[in-house]
Amino acid sequence: MKNMCISLARVVEYAPRKIALLAACAATLAAGVVWTAPVSAQTPIILTGADRRPAISLDGDWKTIVDPYSNGFSGYFRNQKAKPGEVGTAVEYDFSKSPTLKVPGDWNMQRESLFYYEGPVWYERGFTYQPKEHTRVFLHVGAANYRSWFWVNGQKVCEHEGGFTSFNCEVTAAVHAGDNFVIAAVDNTRHADGVPTLKTDWWNYGGLTRSVSLIEVPDAFIDQYDLHLSRTETSVIEGWVHVVVGQPGAKVEVEITELGAKITAPVGEDGRAPIRLAVTKLERWSPETPKLYKVQVRAGLDSIEDLIGFRTVETRGTQILLNGKPIFLRGICIHAEAPYRSGRANTDKDAETLLGWAKELGANFVRLAHYPHDETMLRAADRMGLLVWSENPVYWAVQFDNPQVLAKAEQQLDEEIGTSRNHASIILWSMANETPNNEVRTRYIEAEAAHARELDPTRLITAALLVRGEGQTKIIDDPLGKALDVIGFNEYIGWYEGHPESADVTEWRIGYEKPLIVSEFGGGAKAGLHGGDNDRWTEEYQASIYRHQLGMLNRIPQLRGLSPWILMDFRSPLRNLPGIQDGFNRKGLISDQGLKKQAFFVLQKAYMEKTVGKPE
Ligand code: GCU
Prior knowledge:
- By secondary structure, this protein is α/β, with parallel strands linked by helices.
- The chain is 18% helix and 30% strand.
- Helix 3 (348-360) crosses helix 4.
- The longest helix is centred in the first third of the chain and has 21 residues, at 16-36.
- Alpha-D-glucopyranuronic acid binds at residues 201, 370, 433-434, 490, 520, 565, 585, 587.
């Protein structure tokens, strides 16, 4: 782009049209700056339980312009209309005549020409709105992968980086009575200084991948609240409610009608009201009894009714305690890939299908890999009684030595934890997956873990570590383990190394007196492909891996959970074996079209008969 502009400069004297183009170039070059130094109109705010607030949905068909050269930053956000016969700075785009894409949804699976597309796409849609007195309005974006910029009525309202967390842009000053329009530029270009970075074993689905809406709140409103069962006093719900522009001394109320419990607390200087609510006859949330309570949170003119389950989670030595009792996590990993139709999962149905299969497997736990999943998934896990490992996308080799990259990971944690902090299902915040064992990396993730603990001291911190080996002995002693409450580790004995039987002779040396979760193991199989136990890619080979793995894992005394890789085949640009992978990672226990492979039943049997793992 830069070169084209420089060469243009030389021909400016020839035609006014070129002057216009040059102006466009200058603007784009200036816009290029946007790529690096975020010039944010406003910092998006984080709303806890935003999906429980009444909202004006902006989902549906949006007009779109695909913009591989980032030309749109020169003015698409003004949404001008080309006027027939116009001369000089002719407008060379027109949303009203442009094709549409569905929101929520990735663009890759909606339009064949965008299947591999990485770059900016412009989205536009109109909406009618009536401003109200003493009311602020926010554009709520469930997720936009990867970088995104938003304008309302041509006015920039915010920008954001990170593809898997929700954010809210204030548009109060930009909206007006009657017809309005919103324009978004979403760019899924991968960046070396991104989180995640350039390489991932999942498809880089781009777009407004989760719901978009308008949320109205009073001038003083509740942005975040944290309500959880005390670990020390069994019948006390504690936490806080934060009120934006909350006047010190103003009253906040938390009420659980079903328990006849209600508390009023004053807002402090920091806008927070500390909450301590004594309750009786509380039914604790657990996978067996996923009890959710309607909880009203009120502050001035603002109120939210959330659905919250109450439970405690902690460790004691090498045990994980749920509600004070040792638990073993019978789990499975899940990508946010939609069953059958492929693309990003984002509906209740997607969540119920995926988690329904996990329940059918006999699981009480799911590792949602490798990034925060949609609120629909977390609500379903709360409802269906599945414990959740939620992960920040510090995946493989991000730039650990780059402070801006740490800031990005911390911002994503702010959004993940700020939005989802009251889900009873979430018990583990994972900081990273398969990162190289070196000091710079360790310091980076220690800082990330400290940030997460500050945001939420009520849950356990983990990460998926790599293991090292000496002969037939596997060793877990990555120094990062010191910063974690629960150690996750990934191993692929029988697939990336050795053969299924290798597990039978593998010994484990564990460098920590902490609970262990094997956060990944497994192997690939094409559904319907059959052969001998040693024929790779057959269902028999995959099933054999599982049988031998389960035997081996039962020999690790402090193993407190497992989440094999993975519930369902998913798209990946790294998987191109014709006739077998065809663009899919085939380590699923179920194919992308819902076909259960033999290994599904091997694991189901072990989970149903509880022959794998010991809670204590
Ligand atoms: C890795 C990684 C996954 C990947 C899997 C695989 O361990 O964490 O994201 O898909 O292995 O190789 O299939």
